[in-house]
Amino acid sequence: MEFDWSIIGEAMPALFSGARLTILITIAGLVGGLLVGFLAGLMRAYGNAFLNAVAFAYVELIRGTPIVVQVMFIYFALPVLADIRVNPMTAAVTAIVVNAGAYIAEIVRGSFLSVHRGLKEAGLALGLPMWKVLVYIIGPVAFRRMIPPLGNQFIVSLKDTSLFIVIGVGELTRQGQEIMAANFRAVEIWSAVAILYLLMTGTLTLVLRVTEKRMRIL
Amino acid sequence: MSIVEFRNVTKTFGPVVVLREVDLNIDKGEVVVLIGPSGSGKSTLLRCINALEEINGGDLVVDNISVKAGRSQVRHIRQEAGMVFQQFNLFPQMTALDNVAFGPRRVRGVTRAEALEQAKALLAKVGLAERGHHYPSELSGGQQQRVAIARALAVKPKLMLFDEPTSALDPELRHEVLRVMQALAEEGMTMIVVTHEIAFARQVGTRLIFMEDGKISVDGNPAALLANPENPRLREFLQHVH
Fold first, then answer.
1. What residues does the ABC transmembrane type-1 domain cover (chain A) (predicted)?
2. Is residue A18 part of a domain?
3. CB–CB of A126 and B93 under 8 A?
4. Neighbours of B138 (CB within 10 A)
5. pLDDT for the residue B242
6. Contact residues, chain B, for A218 at CB < 8 Å
7. Does residue A10 sit within a domain?
């Protein structure tokens, strides 16, 4: 077979708009996921029995089910169950928030708890309340340790957006699928799609590496 | 006037009784040296004073506040009782200066500029004026421990607690920490020191307490006790430490 470059050229505008949507869902999802993840992770690490149980149930529920099932549930089951009607884009972002949040919660919990307890005691011994110890002493040390596993999760979440093809969100994979269905040029289209994903994850890796270099891991 | 008052204090870790109905009064200006075999409860006794360990029975009053008086009162006690740890526990993401300035800024609400000014003076006092911009990982153990002493002093405590401050140090680095502690004692700081440094107890201590099995079994003048230890267990212990 012959690799036809013009096919890729023609497909580019649609693929770019798909990639834009992928980035949008990823960023919105991860911002929310970080908030949820920090909250749930700190509840697991430092909360009382009740908060701990709530966060534990959330993490187990999400980690124990596939993200495709989660987004289907949000998009198809929630309207029936609770009369909440959401558009595909909202369902996609929500799915990333909820899904990434659970994994980030474990990353946050692990990083905070990995910080030597002597630092906590040193902070408390100065007369600080616990929240200040977390914000000023343990948090900055834990944050540095979080960067590698968070990078992993960011990349996984970015790629997970491809699964939202099932609810018809016009992200990158969906765009590729639609063009493919029209011209049957599988090699060109899926190569182009793969390379666009690599460019996005590659950029993310680069950003993370620079961040990591600028901070001393403690 | 007593600044620390143990009243019948009991502390347990699960089924293990670590402190058994301890009574102890410590007055302002005393330099109390706590010695005893490992597991005798001396570190726990120290950590109860600033409520890093919660007592299970009796009462413990520090600077006229009970350790059982609630969170904000406990924070007040901790601000008045600086602590120095065996493992230094400096904040690794901050320079020596920022470590020392941290307490005044975050606890006392002093401005950054003013806190750094004080921190410089304190680092100079512990002989580290030149090391302010180094991170803990760039300092020797002895230097780290001196920064830790400066950090505790920065909050202007009335009382200093030392939990085996030289045990993690090489022999040749111990004396630089002990010298700083001696200077502090000579300024009149009230100090409670858990240590195995018998020479420090003799030269600097105003009071020696020997603990065994969660109880205070000897309490008296260091020079007299060390010259003539009547208690057979203390005598045996001193033979092992020397």
1. 19-208
2. no
3. no
4. 12
5. 61
6. 92-93
7. no
